[in-house]
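Quick one, T. Sequence first:
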Amino acid sequence: MTDDSPDASASTRGDSFPGHSTHFGYSEVGEDEKAGKVAEVFDRVARRYDLMNDLMTWGMHRLWKRRAVGIAGVREGDSVLDLAGGTGDIAILLAKRVGPTGRVTLADINPSMLAEAERRLSGHPLRDRVFLREADAEALPFEDGAFDVVTIGFGLRNVTRQAVALSEMLRVLGSGGRMIVLEFSRPVRWFVRPFYHAYSFVVIPTLGRLILRDPASYRYLAESIRMHPDRDTLLRMLETARFENCGVRKLFFGIVAIHHGTKNQKRS
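C-alpha cells:
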C-alpha cells in the first residue's frame, strides 16, 4: 500500500550546485547531475533487476540480506524504514519480523523501482505491513524519531551526498534505534582481487548486454562499487554522523560488508 501520511518536520538539505562535482562511476559529474544519471540507470534495469541480482551474485544476495536483517535486531511491533528498498527483498524479510502490529516503510527515490516493488508485493500475505514511499535519502519526508530501525541495502553508494543521508537516517531514528548499511566493499584476500576485478568488469557487463542489452548500466554499477568508501572510511563516516556502538562485519571474503550503528538513547 502507499503511505499517504503527510510530510512532517523533514530537515531541509542544502541544494546541490553545478560547481560542485562528484563521481558517477569513474566519471566526474556535477552534484546536481548525479541523481538524474542514477535514475536513468535504474529506470533501464528495473524490469529485470531481481533476475540480474540472482545471476550476478549466484543468488547469494538473498543470504546477505537475511544476514543484515538478522543483525538489525528487529522486534515485533517495530516501525522500520528500508531505504533504497528497490523491489522489496529486504522489506519482505523485515515484514516477517515486525509482526502484525509493526510496519515497514519501503522508500526509494526511483518510481520505476517502486512500481516493481508494488507489482511484486501484490497479493503477498505480508502486503498490509509494507508501505511504499517515494523519498530522497538526503531529505527524508519523515518525522524526527519516527523509526526503530533503518536499513539500506546496496543503495548508499548511489547517493550523491552520503554524509547527508547518514545524518538523515540518524534524525529519523528514535532513541536507541539501530541503523544497518549493507553494501559491496573490497576483498580482504589478495588472491581474490584479480578474479573479483575480472568478474566485475567483464562478466557483469556481459550479463547486462545479454539479458538487458545494456552493458553500460552494469559497468556503472561495477564502477560505483570501486568508488564507494572502503570499510574503515565508511565506519568513520558513521561515527562522524554521531552514530554510536558502530561496527562492521565482512561477508564473502570482504566483498560485502554490513555496517551498523545505534542512536544514543540520551540524545534528542
